[in-house]
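Weekly sync, protein design subgroup
Attendees: M.S., D.O., the rotation student, P.L. (late)

Item 1: inverse folding check
M.S. brought a backbone from last month's batch and wanted to see whether the design step gives back something sensible before we order anything. D.O. pointed out we never logged the input encoding, so this time it goes straight into the notes. Structure tokens as presented (554 positions):
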């Protein structure tokens, strides 16, 4: 999707919140200009009254107006912050969920090709910078334009030339300044959008591989790389800061010229007795107050280039050109979920040796097959082929009578349950981790499924029970507990096909037997593939297949 089209589509989301925020921005600016203008009128009138040039002065009406403007400005600015930030947070929530949903539908090879630090940066920093689109660009620009038009119309009631000159400066010169700042800042802004994620990725990789860098005595050279990238980021930031300052200075200069013209023309009009001195003070300070609306815009529009670059980076993440081809007319899920590997040859890269070559395998519907063999013999590759996370170079993978490439990808995700070799637990409560499989599961069901996998005592000893917080990747539980929690989560689903990759790893003998017995019941009437090094204790199964390293046979 084109970056500009994506930016426009973002602006069409949550229109109610955005319009409410825009209205509050306008009200805040009008109240601010009104406060300054009324203050100018009141101060001038008071001075003239003190000099005896005005016989009487009504202090109550302008005083009430000033108080009303001050209160309105305070409340509208507070409401503006609440509404505009709520609108922005909702937009970012929608966008982040959309990007993650698309990302999760990609195949295994694409996901493995992503750099962890770069991907995290795109999901956080690149998405977050898009909050500037509404908060910094569209809302303030529309409010400034609308306020300037309103001011020009009101000034036209006093003097057409005053209105015309003010319009020329505010609605022609200021937009030109803003546009010029944006053009000059486009290249360095885009460079900064790329340089910042590169710096984050480089720093994250260095921290993760710190022990290796120390062992190889490469910490100094790696530090130099980080310093070089950091220097580039600082240089770009300074360059853009100078450009922003120049843009704001030009807008301020334009505002001061408008103020000077308003004063000169106002004095001429005053000399002709067309306006009073207090009204002259009101006009001059009102023109000065209009500058507040324009000052932030040069920097805001310059940063729009960063928004576009961020959208392009997000698009490349969520719209993979190398994704596995999707069927135009997906076939329905077969009634009998048998699995057949038909003369499959598979290698991860063209230059690598085949992991599986002319490989044949069949698992009838409702049967359980155990696959064993040394590391590198293709056991996990077999699982990826069945789930269609990768495609074979030759041969077919069939579920029922349908090629997996012809089935709906959503059906594959919903009908195949998978326990990976390294299951992931999220930084959340135990209950929330389990409810990923079934959001409607109550506490009784969660407790029962944990007991089935031998975690009943573990749960009973937790002070907060199901509300116990798990750290990222289950860092505060053992490897065996992490695997059994993941297995319990899988048991909350109802798949037709189950693939278990090393389900007994890190388990002691008693736990292995308990899990095997639980699987006996749960795998009944399901088609199952169990990948395991250990064959001493297994659930009931129909066949054991042993693979060898190299071009595979059974």
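Designed sequence read out in the meeting:
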């Amino acid at each position: 999707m084109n970056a500009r089209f994506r930016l426009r589509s973002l602006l069409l989301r949550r229109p109610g919140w955005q319009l409410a925020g825009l209205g509050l921005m306008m009200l805040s600016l009008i109240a601010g200009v009104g406060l300054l203008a009324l203050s100018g009128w009141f101060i001038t009138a008071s001075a003239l009254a003190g000099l005896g040039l005005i016989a009487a002065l009504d202090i109550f009406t302008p005083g009430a107006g000033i108080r009303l403007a001050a209160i309105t400005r305070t409340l509208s600015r507070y409401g503006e912050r609440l509404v505009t930030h709520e609108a922005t947070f909702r937009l970012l929530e929608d966008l982040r969920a959309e990007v993650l949903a698309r990302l999760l539908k990609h195949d295994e090879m694409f996901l493995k090709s992503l750099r962890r630090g770069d991907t995290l940066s795109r999901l956080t920093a690149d998405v977050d910078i898009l909050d500037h689109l509404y908060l910094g660009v569209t809302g303030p620009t529309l409010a400034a334009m609308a306020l300037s038009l309103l001011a020009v119309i009101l000034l036209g009631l006093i003097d057409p030339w005053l209105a015309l000159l003010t319009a020329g400066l505010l609605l022609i010169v200021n937009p030109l300044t803003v546009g010029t700042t944006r053009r000059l800042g486009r290249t360095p802004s885009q460079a900064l959008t790329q340089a910042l994620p590169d710096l984050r990725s480089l720093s994250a990789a260095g921290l993760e591989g710190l022990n290796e860098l120390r062992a190889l005595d490469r910490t100094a050279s790696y530090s130099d790389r980080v310093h070089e990238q950091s220097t580039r980021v600082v240089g770009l930031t300074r360059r853009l800061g100078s450009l922003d300052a120049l843009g704001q200075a030009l807008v301020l200069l334009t505002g001061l010229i408008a103020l000077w013209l308003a004063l000169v023309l106002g004095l001429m009009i005053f000399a002709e007795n067309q306006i009073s001195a207090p009204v002259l003070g009101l006009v001059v300070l009102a023109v000065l107050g209009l500058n507040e609306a324009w000052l932030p815009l040069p920097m805001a529009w310059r940063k729009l280039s960063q928004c576009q670059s961020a959208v392009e980076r997000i698009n490349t993440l969520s719209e993979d050109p190398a994704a596995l081809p999707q069927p135009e007319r997906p076939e329905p899920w077969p009634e009998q979920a048998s699995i057949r590997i038909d003369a499959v040859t598979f290698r991860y890269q063209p230059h690598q040796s085949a992991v599986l070559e002319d490989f044949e395998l069949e698992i009838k519907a409702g049967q359980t097959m155990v696959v064993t063999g040394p590391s590198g013999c293709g056991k996990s590759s077999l699982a990826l082929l069945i789930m269609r996370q990768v495609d074979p170079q030759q041969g077919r993978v069939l579920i029922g009578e349908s090629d997996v490439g012809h089935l709906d990808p959503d059906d594959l995700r919903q009908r195949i349950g998978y326990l990976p070799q390294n299951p992931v637990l999220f930084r959340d409560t135990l209950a929330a981790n389990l409810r990923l499989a079934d959001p409607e599961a109550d506490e009784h069901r969660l407790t029962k499924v944990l007991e089935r996998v031998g975690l009943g005592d573990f749960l009973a000893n937790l002070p907060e029970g199901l509300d116990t917080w798990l750290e990222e990747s289950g860092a505060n539980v053992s490897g065996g507990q992490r695997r059994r929690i993941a297995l319990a989560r899988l048991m909350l689903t109802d798949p037709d096909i189950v693939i278990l990759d090393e389900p007994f790893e890190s388990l002691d003998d008693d736990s292995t037997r308990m899990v095997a017995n639980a699987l006996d019941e749960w795998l009944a009437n399901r088609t199952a593939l169990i990948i395991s090094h250990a064959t001493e204790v297994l659930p009931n199964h129909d066949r054991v297949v042993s693979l060898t390293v190299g071009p595979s046979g059974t």
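Discussion: DSSP finds 19 helices and eleven strands in the chain. Residues 339-546 form a domain with the Rossmann fold fold (CATH 3.40.50.300).
Action: P.L. to compare against the previous round before Friday.
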